[in-house]
């Protein structure tokens, strides 16, 4: 098979980045390969034929997907029908499990090889989903090594390909340079505050984190703060919250989260991919998260992982403090951030983060492409 066709569906910007990297690697193995499905501008620049605009799949929360459900189901049926007709060498679903796993199920049952790139958090909660994945995913590509171990335990074909962020984030951060770009004082300690990217997260965490900032400022008047808002809506939301704290020396910016973390001495963040980014930037951090009382009671029985943050999951121990739900108080968070800002503590954490960086620093695209070639026996 000298000119295979690969069908790929990526539903958001991070998937577009992974898809473009994977396409480059597959083209090195199969110079005449064709690529089609749904992708973004980076994939299209590599010669990808996208049947729909990628942002049609980028839905969040509970209400918006329900409103868009007829359209999403129509797109999914069309992709399935196109693949059944064209018979690609493989279908590759990149992240977006709610959309892609259904396609993979239908295509696997039609005899088409299926690959899923970026493991859903099945290892963390509702592990019963692994039974379905085992039936209709021929190859799972994971970004993190503990995910690979989980799939191996359940006899699911898997390849750990490393996390692309490891190669994209500067290994030696330039804190002073980042501060100068953001107009921040290079001589004063700086805490980066990241209360989440969604409205509900900011509503729950924003006020709490600012109360922590007030407490920290009482004991360290030289402390300054930066908050990178994920988008324009979060910027407006945080502006309203900050209006209740006019005495805080906070610089609120839009996006530029990596630059804000690079500038900081430590990061106070809501759990998520941000923790991995902070780890790669060698920044001490305090991880926290809260859900609504009844939501937490509902989901807690399904959570099977001992840790919430990626650094701790990678290390298999508590490397960074996690203060979740009832433990997320002003007193406990203030104490933990004070420790994170301590110079001696920073050096110890930086050494450990370097070890964790080495675990996930692989050429992701090439590793993934080699695993796909092996799956197809080409």
TrEMBL record:
Pathway membership, UniProt: Bacterial outer membrane biogenesis; LPS lipid A biosynthesis
Single Gene Ontology MF annotation: lipid-A-disaccharide synthase activity
Broadest EC class assigned to this enzyme: transferase
EC assignment: 2.4.1.182
Signal peptide: none
Source domain of life: Bacteria
UniProt KW keywords: Glycosyltransferase, Lipid A biosynthesis, Lipid biosynthesis, Lipid metabolism, Transferase
SUPFAM superfamilies documented for this protein: UDP-Glycosyltransferase/glycogen phosphorylase (SSF53756)
Enzymatic reactions: a lipid X + a UDP-2-N,3-O-bis[(3R)-3-hydroxyacyl]-alpha-D-glucosamine = a lipid A disaccharide + UDP + H(+)
Cross-referenced InterPro entries: Glyco_trans_19 (IPR003835)
Family the UniProt entry places it in: Belongs to the LpxB family.
PANTHER family: LIPID-A-DISACCHARIDE SYNTHASE, LIPID-A-DISACCHARIDE SYNTHASE, MITOCHONDRIAL-RELATED
Functional note: Condensation of UDP-2,3-diacylglucosamine and 2,3-diacylglucosamine-1-phosphate to form lipid A disaccharide, a precursor of lipid A, a phosphorylated glycolipid that anchors the lipopolysaccharide to the outer membrane of the cell.
Name assigned to this protein: Lipid-A-disaccharide synthase
Source species of the chain: SAR92 clade bacterium H455
